[in-house]
Design brief:
The longest helix has 30 residues, at 39-68. The chain has helices at 2-11, 16-27, 39-68. It is mainly α and 69 residues long.
Length: 69
């Protein structure tokens, strides 16, 4: 779903992040009907996604600092 919305938002020349937000709203447990019946699983996976995103950003920041030093 994220790949599809990313493609659409690239074609209409909008930031890709908006495509990710739309995909999360479509697949989320509160809008459009839940695709997953277990909300605790969705919550756990979303928290894991945030953790991985934060780790990736911190690694990128460290690489930029190391390249600049």
């Amino acid at each position: 779903m994220a790949a599809l919305t990313t493609f659409v938002f690239q074609r209409i020349r909008q930031p890709v992040v908006f495509g990710y937000l739309v995909a999360s709203m479509i697949l989320g447990p509160y809008l459009g009907g839940p695709l997953f019946a277990d909300r605790s699983m969705v919550t756990t996976l979303s928290e894991l996604g945030v953790i991985l995103l934060m780790r990736g950003e911190s690694r990128a920041l460290l690489r930029r600092r190391a390249a600049g030093a």
